[in-house]
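P.,

For your records, the input lines for the assembly:
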Amino acid sequence: MSEALEKIMPNVMADPERFWDSVLATLEMTAWSGCIMFVLGLFFGVILTVTRDGGILKQRAVHQILDKLVNLFRSIPFVIFIAILLPVTKAIMGTKIGVRGVIVPLVAASVFFFARQVETALAGVDPGLIEAAESMGKSPINIIFTVYLHESVAALSRGTTITLINLIGLTAMAGYVGAGGLGDYAITWGYNYGHTDVIWVSVLAIVVIVTVIQCIGGLIAKKATH
Amino acid sequence: MIEIKNVSKVFKGEKSDVHAVSNVSLTIRDGEIFGIIGFSGAGKSTLVRCINLLERPTSGEVLIDGQDITKISARELRSARKKIGMIFQHFNLMPSRNVFDNVAYALKGSGKSKNEIREKVRELLKTVEMADKETAYPSQLSGGQKQRVAIARALANDPKILLCDESTSALDPQTTKQILNLLKKLNQVLGITTVVITHEMAVVKELCDRVAVMDHGKVIEQGETFSVFANPKEPLTKAFIATTSNLKKIHELIAENSPAIALKPGEIIAKLSYTERSVSEPLISTISQKFGIVLNVIFADIDFIQGSPIGGTVGIFSGEREKITQAIQYLIEKNVFVEVIKDERSA
Ligand SMILES: Nc1ncnc2c1ncn2[C@@H]1O[C@H](COP(=O)(O)OP(=O)(O)O)[C@@H](O)[C@H]1O
Ligand SMILES: [Mg+2]
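Structure tokens returned:
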């Protein structure tokens, strides 16, 4: 078995630990930044939705400012985020490098994209449901949780899937701050040395991760649809 | 009692403002079924939404049992809304919740225990005859069933008022009838004050004690349903009433010069409309016997509103000229409105 593997992918098998470390690093980065991004993005997406004109907590100024900020941050490339956020990262995480060093820029680069996904998902909630809940004397906060979020689980799940997949793409650049991960592995140990097998195995690993995320997302969406 | 006093609602638009409701005053009495009819865009929904403040009036007062709800705090408004149920044209059930949970949703946060909520929901579903569909999702229900669930939900907090915004407009005629009967029953059994918005006069005729006609944001006519039907004043009201009657077909027949209404010399065609309550005498046979004339009925459209017959008959009178005139005089004395549509007496 391992002999066969060594034949197919000699360079991977020369140091399998390095491969598994890279997988782990990718998963770690995605999980941490994914969780933080999810909570913050949900928050911003909800704020964008409820503060708009005709929203249940209409706040014109808040909406306009947040809307502009989201557009602004979405247009900044990830590498630049890494650079400009260095002091912030240092202040929050205590370090600028490694997996901890890349989480802040990863969150920054994905959260506003996700906020838009959330906004789109919530826009799909029938305004009639909001009205019905209001007519029952439900409070705005209650309506956010029991109508907006509860009724858009499927759409939120799809938005989360897309954002997580984007996020995995971004982690490929985590090598810049020495965070490792599959992207870094494929470049430094694969491409730079002409180790084609390393590149292929990295790609395969990423495809597996993406597929698993997609399946889970699809399952949640399906379960939430009646 | 709901007192709407000088309520106006203006929507600020890009180009011009929309005066959706203009200075409307209405009083809706406890326990009655009050209809508001008008064409689409007349401002009915906006007006009814001012009753539970889904729409805040630009000016005016909305008094519910004497309390001006435009002046109370957000928290007080939320508890006031629990006593005002509302149902909608498109039902607005939550697709992610089954029938039970949709109704239970209205009871969440009411301080009731899980068991109390379960009992209450079951009781409500029984009232609307949906007890066997507890675990179904809205997508598995027909329109009429969805509206029943929506009604159960609206009744969950034992409201004193039920607002119905075009609540049968998305339903077929038969289902409409069932839902109207249910609303009527709830009104009688629970004594719930019911406000019905509709663009269909048939709904008003079937259901309402009193009615207001709205046009361009204003109430142009209002009164007891029977009197409005019997003596409509505004052309729009007459147009709405005509939609519920087939008597107007006579004019089409006349325009077509149809052989069905060809008259012999000395005959007339007249439309008899009942405008007073309690026309219970068999008028047609009475005048036939009394005056020795023949009345050949072409159309009859008699209906009952609030227990009294309303509508009319179109018929051909034939007989001696004198006798026909006397018969008409007699009908007028009996408060029947007589409109001679075609007259061949002089020929
Ligand atoms: N939220 C709104 N913003 C702007 N205009 C509105 C709004 N709601 C209703 N209107 C306008 O107010 C008028 C009355 O509408 P509505 O009360 O819905 O009439 P109806 O229920 O009788 O069909 C219409 O011209 C409509 O376009
Ligand atoms: Mg309407």
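Two observations worth noting. The radius of gyration of chain A is 21 Å. Chain A has twelve helices and no strands.

Regards
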